[in-house]
Every structure is written in structure tokens, then in C-alpha cells.
Amino acid sequence: MRRSILACVGLLAFACVTAATSAPRAEANREAATKRAAISHFGAEIAASQKATWRWQRVMGVALTPTAGRALAAMSVSDAADAARVWRLRAIVAERKAQHPPQLKAWLCIHRYEGSWTDTGDPYWGGLQMDVSFQRHYGAWLFAHKGTADHWTPLEQIWVAVRAARTRGFWPWPNTARYCGLM
């Protein structure tokens, strides 16, 4: 009987020690899983905001905002949350800037004398009547991803024209620019 009591006490002591050592390990595993889930969530948010920011920057023809170069897995949850907030703000700012292209009234005047925003008439497409070589040169990213200008939004078409006007002025639209008093 004494042996069975000692065996029970020994078994109970072993169970207590095992439980005491596995409880912190289980807690650590839960914390690690929670951190992985949070980092994954913020990582997806960062990726979506980066994509939106870079899309608008490509449309406007400005340099793309670089990443900080830190690996997401090396960040703490609060650092990842901060990075997600920064990229959300960058996306908002880029979109707001893109909504107000320079000389918007001039481009709308030119459009009034040109075609529909969805004009598919070969050799000129879109609301500012851009030929294929013009689209490839000034709107390469849009041309590669969306095709000809009749598939672009009016805002995208205007930004491509703005990029052209930076170097060529309004000369690609000689008649309509004269009608609008731009030349």
C-alpha cells in the first residue's frame, strides 16, 4: 500500500511539474500565433495600400515611393500597424493628388473638340484622340495593362496628356488647343 501511495504521489508530482512547464509553453505558442495573425493582417493592408499608391503614382508619372526595406516578419505588431497606417495615408494622398491634374480646364476644353472618352476610332483613341505611338510613349504602363486609351478612365487619359505637355506643350492638339486659346 505504501508503494502505491508513493507511486500516486510521484505520478501526481510528475503531472504537476509537466503541467507547470507546459502552461507557459502553450501561452507562448498562443502569443506567437496571435502575432503571426496580426502581422499577416497588417501585411495584407500594407500590400493593398502600396498597390493603390503606386497605381496613382504611375498614372501621374511621378517616382514611386520606395519601401523602407524592413522585412515584415522582423517587425513588432505595433511597427507593422504603424507601417500600415503610413501606407494608408500615402495611398489617400496619392489619390487626392491624382484627382486634380494640372490645367484640368484646358484638357476638358480640348476634349470638347475631340472625341468621346471611349472613342475607338482608329488611328486615334479616347477623349483626347491619342494615337498608338503617343499612348505607348506617354502612357506605357496604362497601355500595357489596359490597352488603348478608350479603356482608360478620363482621369488617366488626362494624366497621359499632362505628361506629354510637360515636354511638348499643347502641340499634339494644334487645332483644338488654338480653339481653346492655349496656343
Task: Describe the secondary structure blueprint for this structure.
Layout: H1 2-60, H2 77-98, H3 104-113, H4 132-138, H5 140-146, H6 154-168, H7 174-179
Helix pairs in contact: 1-2, 4-5
| Strand proportion | under 5%
**Domains (count):** 2
Distance between the termini: 111 Å
> In DSSP terms, counting alpha (H) and pi (I) runs of 4 or more, how many helices?
7
The secondary-structure class comes to: mainly alpha
Overall mean confidence score, pLDDT = 86
**Are there runs of 5+ residues with pLDDT below 50, and where?**
6-11
Query: What level of helicity do the residues show?
Result: 55-70%
* Series of H and E elements: HHHHHHH
Q: What is the radius of gyration?
A: 30 Å
* Largest sheet entry: none
Overall number of strands: 0
Broad shape: elongated
